[in-house]
Amino acid sequence: MDTGDTAWVLASASLVLLMTPGLALFYGGMVRAKSVLNMMMMSFGAMALIGVLWVLYGFSVAFGNDVGGGLLGNPGEFFGLKGLLGESHLVGTLPAMAFVGFQSAFAIIAVALISGAIADRAKFGAWMVFAGVWATIVYFPVAHWVFSFDGVVSEVGGWIAKAGAIDFAGGTAIHINAGAAGLALALVLGKRRGFGRDPMRPHNLPLVMLGAGILWFGWFGFNAGSATAANGTAAVAWINTLAATSAAILGWLLTEKVRDGHATSLGGASGAVAGLVAITPACSALNPMTSIVVGVLAGVFCALAVGLKYKFGYDDSLDVVGVHLVGGLWGTLSIGFFATADAPAGVDGLFYGGGFGQLWIQFYAAVAVMVFSFLVTLLIGFVIQKTMGFRIEEEDEVAGIDQVEHAESAYDWGTLGGGSGRTAGSPLGQARHASGTSEVSA
């Protein structure tokens, strides 16, 4: 055991876990005021549920010894994390439990990301059922495909890892996976009332920017921590993450300025996330100069992709498809173009004389995860919708999902201005008597 590596990975695990509350702020600011609590609760609900499932069987399915041709780890091998408690149980230079904790935060945010695609219209109870089922039959197996390398935790790992695809920190397993799932759920639940007609502007842009800042901060643990050691690979991943994310903000803002005449705060925050998504799989395979190129293009591609929902008619509320699916696809494929053997991954891409071999491997890994996630999520969402019901009633959507699902409001409009603010009869909302207090839903 190396104490320096252990300290770095535990710190990185904490940074990655902080990303999910950061995501809650990012998503929460982007929805209308009557939906912010529900939006944030979906992230916190994912933290609670997936944290338990990961300890029970999730880690074992993702990193247990393979039992299905590279498709699935043995769910009973580490059930309840049995056999992993002592310091003699190592993963590389780490106590096994440090590695377990680090990977748990990845599982949590992968599920939470999907919620942005169905903002304003999903029952909280149905979301929690979906989160548990999706993690069990989609995320945990896909994590095994991508992250379970032979001999690291168990003797036999996943098929994508064996194929030689590079996904340093989760472009396929997390972002393509969640993006494809978000598209499937958006199709199952249908469009929000007024989509494409009524303005659905973010209600709190400072909240969005705060959330994006927390995500960027935590993402250094996400990417650099995936080296699972305090070493040169972690340092390269850190610098490449900085370079690509900074460049992506510039790319998104430039696209907005040319297209719309304004560079917006929402665009800046979204560009940061797009760059973070794109560099996630590639941060160990590129040099800083090509990281800037990948980042700029990620900002441009994702800024253009968020408009696809209006062209094709699907309601991806907070652009999970446009940012995470498109950004994840670009980042994964960019390795096949820009990878250099000088970087820690040690592979040359097409533009560095490596030919098409790595690009092909990256392509079929990305497509396999995307298709699997989309089809299985479509089935899960359809079954939940037909049994317990996934979408709230139309009148509840109009009134506000926070009041209907949680009996709360994010903002007490009636007390603003020392009691002289708007009353229950105002256009902003209607009064609701709960627990002896009067709340107003915007």
Tell me about this structure.
It is a single chain. The chain is an all-alpha fold and 442 residues long. It folds into 2 domains: 3-387, Ammonium transporter fold; 394-440, no CATH class. The protein has 15 helices and 4 strands. It has helices at 3-30, 36-63, 96-114, 124-147, 159-163, 171-189, 205-224, 232-260, 265-279, 288-305, 308-312, 320-338, 357-387, 394-399, 401-406; strands at residues 90-91, 94-95, 431-434, 437-440. A two-stranded antiparallel sheet has the order 1-2. Strands 3-4 form a two-stranded antiparallel ribbon. A hairpin with a 2-residue loop joins strand 1 (90-91) and strand 2 (94-95). The radius of gyration is 22 Å and the shape is globular.
